[in-house]
């Protein structure tokens, strides 16, 4: 029985057999702007050129809305490499993105942080 494609590129002891920089062709900067909480979703448009197995894996995860951080965790790649792959998919129209919604509160507001801490302690 043939092994799943991902199993060919993974080793239990060593991890990924292909180094992350080779997955992104040595690129370290995405062509699109992403936050770890940026929502990504497939558009249904198929890439006109073959991008590679990692691109295909990322695209397969985008059937429903998913954050960049979740995608990176699923493909077991650093976030920056995942962002480069996603930017390739954005460039060819295969995925669309939506920036995370920013709430009106200041993320460094002491009262807000204390309320969150209180809520977390209450749950324990």
UniProtKB/TrEMBL annotation:
<dbReference type="Pfam" id="PF05331">
    <property type="entry name" value="DUF742"/>
</dbReference>
<protein>
    <submittedName>
        <fullName>DUF742 domain-containing protein</fullName>
    </submittedName>
</protein>
<dbReference type="InterPro" id="IPR007995">
    <property type="entry name" value="DUF742"/>
</dbReference>
């Amino acid at each position: 029985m043939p092994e799943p494609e991902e199993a060919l590129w993974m080793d239990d002891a060593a991890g990924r057999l292909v180094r992350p920089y080779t997955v992104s062709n040595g690129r370290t900067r995405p062509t699109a702007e992403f936050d770890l909480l940026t929502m990504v979703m497939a558009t249904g448009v198929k890439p006109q050129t073959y991008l590679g197995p990692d691109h295909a894996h990322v695209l397969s995860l985008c059937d429903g809305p998913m954050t960049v951080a979740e995608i990176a965790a699923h493909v077991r790649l650093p976030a920056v490499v995942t962002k480069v792959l996603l930017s390739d998919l954005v460039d060819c129209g295969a995925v669309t993105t939506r920036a995370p919604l920013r709430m009106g509160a200041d993320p460094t507001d002491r009262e807000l942080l204390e309320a969150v801490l209180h809520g977390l302690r209450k749950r324990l």
